[in-house]
Design brief:
This protein is mostly helical. 53% of the residues lie in helices and 0% in strands. Helix 1 packs across helix 4.
């Protein structure tokens, strides 16, 4: 899929929640797997995805990944935008697709094992 210059449409509440889960899970993964200095997403990296995504400290590699994931979500050509895990179109590059699977698999189990049973709903649906 190629990048387009179309103006991103405003995100719905469900889409913002989807990106919030990705940001939270990326932060958990980064905290456990990456040492070193961490900083939240900048204004230019989070785009118009909402201020809630700027609350998670990430290393440079994870910030780059999350910024990429947000930009792909904002440029999603499908209307209405489906939840990413139920989408038939793969808009991530192959390396990033594997990275998001790795992050979601690790962080989901990590948080559920530590009492975040509310995430089971998102995990199955």
């Amino acid at each position: 899929m190629t990048e387009t210059n179309r103006t991103p449409s405003p995100l719905t509440r469900a889409e913002l929640k989807d990106l919030g889960v990705l940001a939270r899970f990326t932060s958990v993964y980064c905290r456990v797997h990456h040492a070193g200095e961490k900083a939240p997403l900048g204004e230019d990296e989070a785009g118009s995805a909402g201020p809630g995504l700027k609350n998670y400290p990430l290393c440079a590699e994870c910030r780059e990944f999350l910024s990429y994931a947000i930009s792909r979500r904002l440029r999603c050509p499908l209307e209405p935008k489906p939840v990413c895990k139920h989408c038939d179109v793969h808009c991530y590059r192959p390396g990033h697709r594997e990275k998001v699977r790795q992050i979601m698999r690790f962080s989901g189990k990590y948080l559920i094992m530590r009492g975040r049973l509310d995430l089971l709903w998102h995990y199955f649906f």
